[in-house]
């Protein structure tokens, strides 16, 4: 069974940093593109970043470019999202997810809430 | 960046009725890489349709997707109580950007 379990969310002050993790199991992790998608409270889905299977290519939404780094450790079946210079508007549930067909997403984690507030 | 506009914002229907949800793109979606998701409160999204018209594994055949270019439709032939939820479209053809529509809320009338 495919499982994606996020951790690391919490309350952080504006300008602060946070690192999210996503532990994957139940599939050949090193063979898949992986994604982060976020959802602000009561709002829609917003793509944040993607990473290729071997971790050598990443792309970011303009809203987070330069502040967020997406990485993966295929030996540990784990994704990381390092978030710096956090802003109020980064407050959201962050989902890690598995790519399926041309950036379609077939499995999602349960999400971890990041709250940026003073 | 391709902007996706979903309509209507809210659709009020009764169980057993047919639901038709629209997703319009600001420019043509390359190779019709258009995806539909369902999301219920407090849950992660669920993949329904990919490549505009392909049902994902385990999705009932009452869900169907159609369209090409800039106009796409998700149709639910006969609504079941569990189908009342939020629905999002996503375009996957405008690399590097991935965009979602703002969503359609399907509610019980």
User: What separation lies between the terminal Cα atoms of chain B?
Assistant: 35 Å
* Structural class determined from secondary elements of chain B: mainly beta
Category by helix and strand content of chain A: mainly beta
Mean pLDDT of chain A: 97
Largest sheet of chain B, if any? Answer: 7 strands, mixed
Mean pLDDT of chain B: 96
The shape of chain B is globular
Low-pLDDT windows of residues of chain A: none
Instruction: Give the helix proportion of chain B (percent range).
Output: under 10%
Strand content of chain A: over 45%
What is the helix tally of chain A? 0
Q: In words, what does this structure look like?
A:
- The complex is a heterodimer of chains A (about 120) and B (about 110).
- By secondary structure, chain A is mainly β.
- Chain A contains no helices and eleven strands.
- In chain A, the strands form two sheets. In chain A, strands 2, 4, 5, 6, 9, 10 and 11 form a seven-stranded mixed beta sheet that branches. Chain A has a four-stranded antiparallel beta sheet with strand order 1-3-8-7, with no helix packed on it.
- Chain A is globular, with a radius of gyration of 13 Å.
- Chain A starts with a strand and ends with a strand.
- The model of chain A has no long low-confidence stretch (mean pLDDT about 95).
- Chain B has about 110 residues and is an all-beta fold.
- In chain B, about 0% of the residues lie in helices and about 50% in strands.
- Chain B has no helices and eleven strands.
- In chain B, strands 2, 4, 5, 6, 9, 10 and 11 form a seven-stranded mixed beta sheet that branches. A four-stranded antiparallel beta sheet of chain B has the order 1-3-8-7, with no helix packed on it.
- In chain B, a hairpin with a 6-residue loop joins β4 and β5 (about 45-50).
- Chain B is globular, with a radius of gyration of 13 Å.
- The model of chain B has no long low-confidence stretch (mean pLDDT about 95).
- Classes of the chains: A mainly beta (about 120), B mainly beta (about 110).
- The interface of A and B includes residues 50, 61, 105 and 108 of A.
